Amino acid sequence: MAEEKILICSKLLAQKGLTIAFAESATAGWLCSEFALAPESGRVLNLCFIKPETRLLTVLFCQHCF
Question: Residue 46 sits in which domain range?
Fold first, then answer.
């Protein structure tokens, strides 16, 4: 189960039609994994990755990623 403040934030994002993406390193994806546990994750969470060969950040804005 995600932390209460993550659940609240996720619900507010969904209510406002907003999305969020993370580019994490030091936290090893912890924040993104917490949002992925929220019931609204498919509506608010975008996928983000870095291509190692170019070191370019790519954010995939998609609906219903999960």
Answer: 4-60
pLDDT, residue 51, reads 66
Whole-angstrom Cα distance, residue 11 to residue 29? 20
What gap in Å lies between CA 47 and CA 31, rounded to an integer?
A: 13
Q: Say if CB 60 and CB 46 are below 8 A apart.
A: yes
Residue 65: inside a domain, yes or no?
Answer: no
- Output the 3-class SS for 19-62: CECCCCCCCCCHHHHHHHCCCCHHHHECEEEEECCCCEEEEECC
Full-model pTM: 0.69
Total structural domains within the chain? 1
Residue 42 has pLDDT above 90, yes or no: no
